[in-house]
Amino acid sequence: MTSPGPSCWRRRGGGIDLFVRLTPKSAQDRLEGAETAADGHSYLKARVRAVPEKGAANAALEKLVAKALGVAASSVSVSAGGAARLKTLHISGDPSNLAEVLAALAGQPDGKKPSGEGG
Questions:
Q1: Is the dihedral of CA 54, 57, 58, 59 positive or negative?
Q2: What tens digit of pLDDT does each residue of 71-103 get?
Q3: How distant is the alpha carbon of residue 5 from its chain centre?
Q4: How far is CA 63 from the centre of its chain?
Q5: What is the DSSP letter of 112?
Q6: Could you tell me which of 30, 37, 42, 31 has the C-alpha nearest to residue 4?
Q7: For the whole model, what pTM was predicted?
Q8: Which residues cross the membrane (predicted)?
C-alpha cells in the first residue's frame, strides 16, 4: 500500500504520534488538513482561540484533536514541542482506527469528520 504523500502521523506504542502546526489566538478552533513543509515534513494544521500562555493553547489543541478523533481528551497529550508552534501529540488507542480517522481528517480542509456517505 502506498500513501499519497508523507504522513503527518506515525504509529507508536499503543497509539499514534501526530505532527501538528498550531496557530493560537485564532478566530475559531479548527483543523485545516495536512500540509507538507519545504523540508518535506508533513503536519496537520490546527488553529485554536486560546492564547499561548500557561499551556492554554496546548490544552485547547488536545481537546480539539480528541473531539475530532472521537477519543477521550485524556488519550491525547503533547509529547514534544510544548512551547513551539510545531508539536508532536501522542494519541492512545487502536493505531489502525486512529490512522483511518486521521487520513480522512487530513484531507478535509474544514476539519470536519466525513459523514460516512456522500461524495
A1: positive
A2: 999 999 999 988 899 999 999 988 888 888 888
A3: 17
A4: 10
A5: P
A6: 42
A7: 0.80
A8: none
